[in-house]
Amino acid sequence: MKIAIASGKGGTGKTMVTASLSASWGRPVVAVDLDVEEPNLHLFLKPDITGSRDALMEVPQVDTSKCDYCRKCAEFCEYKAISVLGDVIMIFPEMCHGCGGCLALCPTGALTPAHRKLGEVSWGTSGENRFLMGRLRVGEAMSPPLIHQVMTELKRPEVSADLTDVLIDAPPGVSCPAISAVIDSDFVVLVTEPTPFGVFDLRLAHQAFTTLGKPMGVVVNRAGVGNDEVYRFCSQAGLSILAEIPYDRAIAEAYAAGNVIARTSASMTALFQRLAETIRQAAAPAKEARHA
Question: What residues are paired with 81 via a beta bridge?
Fold first, then answer.
């Protein structure tokens, strides 16, 4: 089963929950960091990286000796990655979304595939678990294609052989990267905090992910601060509270030191073991339905 750990905004403790679930899952899993713009799951799981590759995206290149400047490619491209001014054609690879439409449309064969680097995909092991992550190149804006490549890498036997469970640390927010990371999951864990900002962004995440038809549950981090609005919203929206992580200075210190909080005390170990079992039970029907 694939479990996505997501949040409506950054800073709620999403990666902390992912790392602790990985340590408490009870059987080997693949821990995947899809927060490719700012991956930090490795800081907690401290994996041994055994391999990596560049992640590339197809972009057009032009052979001006074949181009008749018909402008069909420029008129097709909604992202203005190609401009034709008289008998001059200019390609802006950084603006290309890699759809390949211009390559298919070009009547003279002047446009052919080239590539630009999106970032890097790395894999390795963390204890008994496998580890996989993507890291976006500095200056690159297109994270969904890299997320897709990381998920494709997950199918390789070297990465996920004989392992059936996957824990995904999704990007924060509700835009394209978050949707791309969550869309193939069996269950979505929404991590939030009982503050006005937390509730506001939880509402957005619930609205966005509900359209995907995924079962969801909520983990309340820093429970004890703020007010009870997050609980009222979950009740109204039919969202189960899967676990509450108390507002505790010791937890903050452990997190800041790069420790997996599920390993810091007996109470935290028990909390995340219960959370892992609750998620497995909640996700099982969705997994069976998806594979039926």
Answer: none
Residue 243 token pair: 């676990």
**Distance linking the first and last C-alpha atoms of the chain:** 13
pLDDT number for residue 278:
95
Q: Who contacts 13 (Cβ-Cβ below 8 Å, separation ≥6)?
A: 7, 191, 193, 219, 221, 222, 245, 255
Average pLDDT of the residues in 158-175? 86
Average pLDDT of span 244-255: 94
Which comes out higher in pLDDT, residue 21 or 159? 21
* DSSP result, 193-238: -SSHHHHHHHHHHHHHHHTTT--EEEEEEEETBS-SHHHHHHHHHT
CA dist 84 and 201 (Å) reads: 42
Spatial contact of 3 and 168, defined as CB atoms under 8 Å apart = yes
Question: What pLDDT does residue 266 have?
Answer: 96
**Amino acid at residue number 188:** V
Burial of 158 (0-12, 13-18, 19+ CB in 10 A): exposed
* Contact (Cβ atoms closer than 8 angstroms) between residue 258 and residue 4: no
